[in-house]
Specification:
Length: 630
């Protein structure tokens, strides 16, 4: 039996902080290829050299100023402690490239190297401080806030905004109000800047909180090293990006790790034709920012956020609460983006896109304790497609805010949404008291704005239980005033509780049909016609003016007969349709102009859900190392 990446990693490395939650960056074997290559080496290079393999330059910044169309800047393995401003452009047929040397891990780090390389000399105990509190020996005048990671596991340190929280002996959400200055809450190992002295404080005290039973499989306490002088840390305080690509055209960035920024880690601004491939970025507020750019590609890359396995949504109030990926218009609107086979994990909010022409597919999106993908934007999105992704543990997967004009619609199809695992919502109020967790939901808004037109079809949605507006079918059936909604050929399967069939007023521009609903617990014992009441209602008759067959005319209440499924989200599932599944050939035909890469491979009438019968689940994530079906 093959070992998982996590098990294999633990066999070869002793993590003194905490075992990693995600695959760690590894060197790539990508060949150098043809063309002119210049070399950079942080250990034996010198910017007075000529950039040849035997006489490499020392800094990436120097090499970037020498880059020419068709040329490649090759970084030898090691850590480059600098903030790089890249402005070099290539030609359409001769791009300029920044990459790591084959077989070597190259890291761009905009942070302070002393905390990683010489931690024993970088920290000193704080006299009269909290147990285990240390501070930097020197001042950092440019640091407004501090963000960082453990040097061994790469897990994030909590980005405290206030020393009162870093120093607290209380771990429970009993503050009186969310922004209390009189009482703090310790949120785990983290960093804070003392605004009076401009010194950086750190505390790696273990977490002792008793967590609710529902979180014990996702909340993992910190029990590692408490003295920062004995452990390398990545610490950043500068507001400047570690890598900024500005005003450049035809740029390729391959096989790099970028970290060490208190604001944007990677920024792409005013560019054209930029590709990031096999790039790992650690946030950062956000980890990645793209503005005013035409033709941007992010492939086989990973963005890691600021939420450690002991973090809650509390970060919104007591720490830095950033997005992971922001794409906003600058002097011109972003246009023509593709984000594929990438991973976006462990953050507060995930994606804020304002893009004309955005393809988001074959990605892993997991563990965002507030909003996932914002679909409100200024200017509005145009031609946004979200498909063949695996999405889980987002409190609000699709979010809306403001009162911007709506775009021409978002197509959401062939995704697997797994809403069974709990979301780390807030610290429990006291020992032994329930709370702390919440359930993920499909969509929600802030302030009641008009939602974007939504076309949701051929998705598989897994739910823990029914629960009002958190139920996927209810989400798609609500908030339809002044917008367009189409909901076809989806599978909604919940572990317990009976599904509901909420529909808007017949006057709304809404259509829904060909969806399957099922309850693992209550479904097998149900007797009768689940749809009888709806199909005999005046609303059903009135809905035919919008959709001639009537809303839910072809819906099913039936066991989809997955090849393998369990109510317990921790167990392996196989979401392919098994023999005799009622979801096979049960869908309604969809407009040919609606995008769907699997339409031609689905024989007969459309099968319901994300994975047509006879097909395997698509790979997702970096190099397809995960499956679409969890």
């Amino acid at each position: 039996m093959a070992l998982s990446w996590a098990a294999a990693l633990l066999l070869v490395q002793d993590f003194r902080s905490h075992p990693p939650e995600r695959p760690l960056p590894v060197a790539s074997a990508r060949p150098l290829g043809e063309g002119r290559h210049v070399f950079v080496d942080p250990a034996r290079g010198d910017d007075a050299h000529d950039g040849s393999p035997d006489r490499p330059w020392r800094t990436v910044g120097h090499a970037s100023r020498k880059a020419k169309p068709g040329g490649t800047v090759v970084l030898r393995g090691g850590t480059y402690y600098e903030r790089v401003e890249w402005t070099a452009s290539g030609d359409a047929d001769r791009p300029v490239t920044l990459r790591a040397h084959p077989g070597e891990l190259a890291i761009l780090d905009g942070g302070y190297r002393e905390f990683f390389e010489t931690p024993a000399e970088a920290w000193e105990p704080v006299e009269g401080g909290a147990p285990g509190e240390f501070r930097s020996r020197r001042e950092y005048p440019g640091a407004e806030r501090a963000i960082g990671n453990f040097g061994d596991s790469w897990l994030p340190l909590y980005p405290y905004l206030r020393l009162i929280d870093l120093r607290a002996d209380n771990e429970y959400w009993n503050l009186g109000n969310k922004l209390s200055d009189e009482k703090g809450v310790y949120c785990g190992p983290g960093l804070a800047v003392d605004p009076a002295t401009r010194r950086i404080h750190v505390r790696l005290a273990p977490t002792r909180m008793e967590v609710p039973a529902g979180l014990r499989d996702t909340y993992r306490p910190y029990r590692g090293v408490a003295d920062p002088r004995t452990l390398p840390l990545v610490v950043a305080g500068s507001p400047e990006p570690t890598l900024r690509i500005s005003g450049a055209r035809h740029v390729r960035v391959f096989d790099l790790v970028v970290r060490g920024a208190a604001r944007k880690t990677v920024e792409v601004d005013g560019c054209e034709d930029v590709l990031l491939d096999h790039v790992t970025v650690f946030g950062g507020q956000p980890a990645l920012s793209v503005s005013g750019t035409l033709r941007f590609r992010l492939l086989h890359s990973a963005l890691r956020g600021l939420c450690a396995p002991w973090a809650f949504r509390t970060i919104k109030y007591r720490g830095s609460a950033p997005y992971l990926f922001v794409a906003r218009g600058g002097a011109r609107q972003n246009e023509d983006f593709e984000v594929a086979f990438s991973e976006f994990t462990d953050s507060h909010d995930f994606l804020l896109p304002s893009v004309k022409g955005f393809r988001f597919h074959h990605n892993l999106v997991d563990n965002h304790n507030d909003d996932g993908i914002y679909l409100s934007a200024d200017p509005p999105n145009r031609d946004l497609q979200v498909f063949q992704n695996r999405i889980s543990r987002c409190l609000t997967t699709f979010a809306f805010y403001g009162n911007f004009a709506t775009g021409d619609g978002v197509h959401i199809f062939r995704n697997v949404f797994d809403f069974r695992p709990p979301v780390h919502y807030h610290h429990p109020a006291e020992p032994g008291k329930a709370g702390g967790e919440d359930q993920a939901r499909m969509a929600g808004d802030h302030g009641g704005p008009t939602w974007e037109p939504l076309f949701a079809y051929h998705n598989t949605v897994l739910l823990d239980r029914s629960g009002g507006w958190r139920t996927a079918a209810e989400t798609w059936g609500g908030h339809t005033k002044r917008t367009v909604r189409r909901v076809f050929n989806n599978l909604f399967v919940q572990s317990e509780g009976m599904p509901s069939l909420p529909f808007p007023p017949a006057a709304d521009d809404f259509q829904a049909d060909g969806n399957l609903h099922w309850s693992l617990k209550e479904g097998p014992g149900f007797v009768g016609d689940f749809f009888a009441k709806h199909r005999s209602s005046p609303l059903f008759a009135a809905s035919k003016s919008r959709y001639p067959p009537g809303w839910a005319a072809n819906d099913l209440f039936a066991d989809p007969k997955f090849l393998g499924f369990d109510a317990d989200w921790k167990r392996t599932t196989d979401l392919r349709l098994g023999p005799g599944s009622p979801a096979i050939d049960a869908g309604v035909p969809l407009p040919a102009e609606w995008p769907d890469p699997l339409r031609a491979r689905d024989a007969g009438r459309p099968d319901l859900g994300a994975i047509p019968a006879g097909l395997g689940p698509d790979p997702v994530g970096v190099d397809g190392r995960f499956s679409l079906a969890p």
